Predict the 3D structure of the following.
Amino acid sequence: MAAVLPPQAAPHEFLRARTRWHPLEIVFWLSTLLPFVVVPEYLQLASQIAIAALFAISLDLILGYAGIVSIGHAAYFGLGAYTAGILSKHGIGEPVVLLVLGAIVAGVVGYASSFIIARFRHLALIMITLGICLMFYEAANLAGWLTGGADGLQGIKIGPLAGTFKFDLYGKTAYSYSLIVLFLCFLLARRLTHSPFGLSLRGIRENAVRMPAIGAPSDAHIRKVYTIAAAIAGIAGAVLAQTTSTVSLEVLGFQRSADVLVMLIMGGAGKLYGGILGSIVYMVARDQFSGINPQYWYFWIGLMMVLVVMYLPNGLLGGLEKLTARWRRSPT
Amino acid sequence: MLGPIAGILFDGFAYGMLLFLLSVGLSVTLGMMNFINLAHASFGMLGGYVAVTLMQHFGWPFLATLPAAFVIAAAVSMVLERVMFRRMYRATDLDQTLLTIGVVFMSIAGAAYFWGTVQQPVAVPDYLSGAFVVAGVNIARYRLFLIVVALVIVAVLIAGLEWTRFGAQVRAAVDNQRMARGLGLDVDRAFSLTFALGSGLAGLGGALAIAMVGLDPGFAFAYLIYVLIVVSVGGLASIGGSFVAASLLGISDMAGKYYVPQLGSFLIYLVMVGILMWRPTGLFGKR
């Protein structure tokens, strides 16, 4: 990776080397097509995983890269979901248009709240992100005339994708659609994190006070990345609303914020693939455990989290990297 | 006009005292070790279940279950602190958050496994149920009892922190942990005791809470948010701050439910965000 470059490499060479595609990445993205062939009966789950992965990537941008711990990221996910759901009720059926609108609404709200977010750190920050999310939850609960309140949004009508592909029960369209959106957003996030902007975000994570001293305004960068992350979370929410044709209060719940945090950390924060890997493991585990025992699956998820934090400090991906590094060293 | 207001103040204050008992331990341990323990409310839940079990299966009187809830919650927390939390003091905020959310998940599933997901019934003894009227204000005996217990505990805590050797050690460790270590204080031991004490108080709060707010496995999550609000608004390691914040929260929650029920909890979250924006370290926080 980056570390093998000689130190005298010019900055742009360094950046270019980081953006080069690793063969494993290509293998990974090709293997995301496997569910169509291998487990066609699980395409709905695969679609859910792709959505969760997209949501995890959006959290990774602010948490893994800029170091902003948020336990209220579901606010933007829910905004996107409700925007797409409500607008579809009022005649906008084209999925892609809804997606863009969901992203815009979540992004605008994210931009507005980023002015608050950029000012705080530590416990106050955690509580403010949580508070903002809870406020949206309560607001959606109260505005029953708009959102359907606790009963969930009724009467969502999503048109066929690109005028031809209908969303069906088997999830073929749903998974294709979620996967394409995930891949496009991933490309965006990958470009972003490998850019000089992405590097300065890491600088902020390491030391937010020093960054302005070398000419990188911390607050402005935090605002930017927070807005982008909010918009991507909004896209994830909109995709969920479209592929499942349901939006309930749960999209804004604390549970969803906590889940995505778990997926991201379990997979490994600060690495885009960490969020994806984490959401695959988490969602599959949840599916399996809740199949075995619907009431107690939480126990196993909790145990998984404890073990990951105690024994895999950099998540599953960090553990894998360590393993491969050891494996590579041993023959020489 | 005065009757309802005084009634809301009383009920809200009683509710606030419940929140105080549930959260004061977290406030002190967070201030001391910077350890974000989201599983704190789980100890409250444990205390609640201990009380219910002792009453239903062993026929203990209600009052006798309260100390038992305290002791068992404290003991369990001490074990967890030894085997798990102690290794995480130097970890990042994020890892601590995650580890303790994991413990919350496990505690919720464990509670559902052993006690089922239904609401636990609790029978308050006769001398604590019912209500009487003073100057037009309806005073529920149980809530009065709750307030008295909480006030006694506040007094004991403040006196203990202010005038005992252990209290001085705790204060020193909160103010400057490295300096306290440098002076030869056994900060780890002080912390482990404080942790057990705080969890025990949460357990006591949980046992007292069932008669007022009920108990099911969702308790650990539902009250976690309230506990966090009290701690962050009150400021870390400040017993007085937790007391004020818990009273404010309890009263405004009651008043909100009474006067503007259509707003629900919206108001509380708004107030919390507002206060934190105004004072990021909480009302009485130093750091």
Remarks:
- Residues 47 and 240 of chain B are 24 Å apart (CA to CA).
- The longest strand of chain B covers residues 131-134.
- Chain B has one domain: 2-278.
- DSSP finds eleven helices and two strands in chain B.
